[in-house]
UniProtKB/TrEMBL annotation:
Alphabetized UniProt keyword annotations: Hydrolase, Metal-binding, Zinc
Family annotation (SUPFAM superfamilies): Cytidine deaminase-like
Gene transcribed to yield this protein: cdd
Sample GO molecular function, one term: cytidine deaminase activity
Record's GO cellular component terms: cytosol
Database matches in CDD domains: cytidine_deaminase (cd01283)
Protein's job: This enzyme scavenges exogenous and endogenous cytidine and 2'-deoxycytidine for UMP synthesis.
UniProt-recorded name of the protein: Cytidine deaminase
Amino acid sequence: MSDPQDSLIAAARAARARAYAPYSHFSVGAAILGESGRIHAGANVENAAYPQGQCAEASAIGAMILAGDRSIEAIAVMGGQPGDGRLCTPCGGCRQRLREFAKADTPIHVCGPEGLRRTFTLEELLPHSFGPDNLDF
């Protein structure tokens, strides 16, 4: 059996290859490891009316929910160009989306086409966040 991190990165790579990015030409793939052990992937989907597009992370979260998982154990996000070295981290909106289903220590593997570039925790990317636990009365 392969390493879960390697499987996530491979799934993010495959999702990135299917992204629909005719305007920005910036394809992104994401893959989530759910609590069931299954991997749920998504790609960015652009739209001529720019605000109507969808990020890869949001697509992957939707696939996870549809499959019945409710908790993100880890995620890999792949974007950028080979050899570029810059990080393609989740946008602010997606960081908040991840917060809905992930814990502070959930690993977020940020990858380029060549593979892993850096791993963060959700807390590192979204410190002092507001989430479901803030609504517990």
